[in-house]
Design goal:
Layout: H1 58-68, H2 73-77, H3 81-94, H4 96-107
Helix pairs in contact: 1-4
Length: 123
Amino acid sequence: MYCASCGKELPTQAAFCPACGAAVGGTAGATRGGAGAAQGSLRPYPSRSGVEVSEKSRLAALLLCLFLGWLGVHRFYVGKVGTGVLMIFTFGGLGIWTLIDLIMIIVGGFKDVDGRFVLDWQV
């Protein structure tokens, strides 16, 4: 079972989510895309506090930025082709743009092309 608020797995018999403190009930105990869920009632990646979450991996974006950030490969990964090309021509904004993106990925403020936050660490 997964929490409807934060998407973390819930222990059986939990009254509150240990990760975010949300009360378990209603759709909070629904499985992620499970057979019992109504069609379209749950997104594959639930929102966290009303924030849309990207399906892209935060770990992959972090590693791409760390090792190939000056080429903008992490921006191509999340679908931002235009700024990825600009990063190639400016060598990652002479490293400054790459450093800012690296910090944004680490703190969870980096967004994909659709404006959804890249938050999930799983690859």
